[in-house]
Amino acid sequence: MRAMYTAATGMMAQELNVSVISNNIANMRTTGYKRQRAEFQDLLYESQRRVGSNTSDQGTMVPTGIQVGSGVKTAATTRIMSQGTLTSTEKDLDVAIRGEGFFQVDLPDGRTAYTRDGSFELDANGKIVTVDGYTVNPGITIPNNASNITVNSLGQVSAIIGTNTTSTVLGQLQLARFVNKAGLEAVGDNLFLETAASGTPQQGTAGSEGFGNTLQRYLEAANVNSVTELTDLISAQRAYEMNARVVTAADEMLQTTASLSR
């Protein structure tokens, strides 16, 4: 019976929907995480009476017809790239982006990754790196005798070197932005990669046209709203239950039909 297969597609769609929601909830405390949303599309239709077909020799036509759908499919898991809440950390190398842009990270294989996670550290050579040890573009090194490290709103990294009384600019963090940032490929570790859908990166400095500002001693929290996610979870669960109920109803109808042939 068609209804069983149609309802099965609905159950599979809602199972994936719950998986997406659970991943959002699991990453509520992940720095720079961007929530996802499952998008669905209806499947092909079978036209049992085509719209606009002739019903007589005088040219009268079927006004609506009969079309029976075959279920639902998952079209995409869209990533919502809205700004997350900025949280104070009081750590010198924690840097958040307020507005558009991604930090650029040099991966060991030569590729460039992009992230909103600005929880940076220093490696053994004093270079600014991510928590996984990847160099943050453009590879700024802070000397051992540096103190009072500051990162201004333009991404300039400065520090007082040795016994100097004035700050020395050590470098400037570079940002990148994309025409379609939702088209970036998430690869884990709070990193994204460029894709054909995202477009090529447009590089620039914080505070320039189209780019956000950097904020020292702050981190961007995940843009996950717990109330919204729990509401969506309940809706997905109820939709799954209703599709399962359709399968049960279709099975009972088949049992009734089978009993008539006895």
Automatic annotation (TrEMBL):
Annotated GO biological process: bacterial-type flagellum-dependent swarming motility
Q: Identify the keywords attached in UniProt to this record, alphabetized.
A: Bacterial flagellum, Cell projection, Cilium, Flagellum
Q: Which Pfam families match?
A: Flg_bb_rod, Flg_bbr_C, LlgE_F_G_D1
Keyword ATP-binding among UniProt keywords: no
Where do the Flagellar hook protein FlgE/F/G-like D1 domain residues begin and end? 96-159
Compartments in which it is found: Bacterial flagellum basal body
Cellular component, GO annotation: bacterial-type flagellum basal body, distal rod
Using the record's annotation, list all stretches that form the Flagellar basal body rod protein N-terminal domain. Answer: 4-34
Q: Does the keyword Nucleotidyltransferase apply?
A: no
Q: What is its main location?
A: other
Q: Which residues form the Flagellar basal-body/hook protein C-terminal domain?
A: 216-260
User: Subunit structure of this entry?
Assistant: The basal body constitutes a major portion of the flagellar organelle and consists of four rings (L,P,S, and M) mounted on a central rod. The rod consists of about 26 subunits of FlgG in the distal portion, and FlgB, FlgC and FlgF are thought to build up the proximal portion of the rod with about 6 subunits each.
Q: Which NCBIfam families match?
A: FlgEFG_subfam, flgG_G_neg
What family is reported? Belongs to the flagella basal body rod proteins family.
Q: This chain belongs to which protein, by name?
A: Flagellar basal-body rod protein FlgG
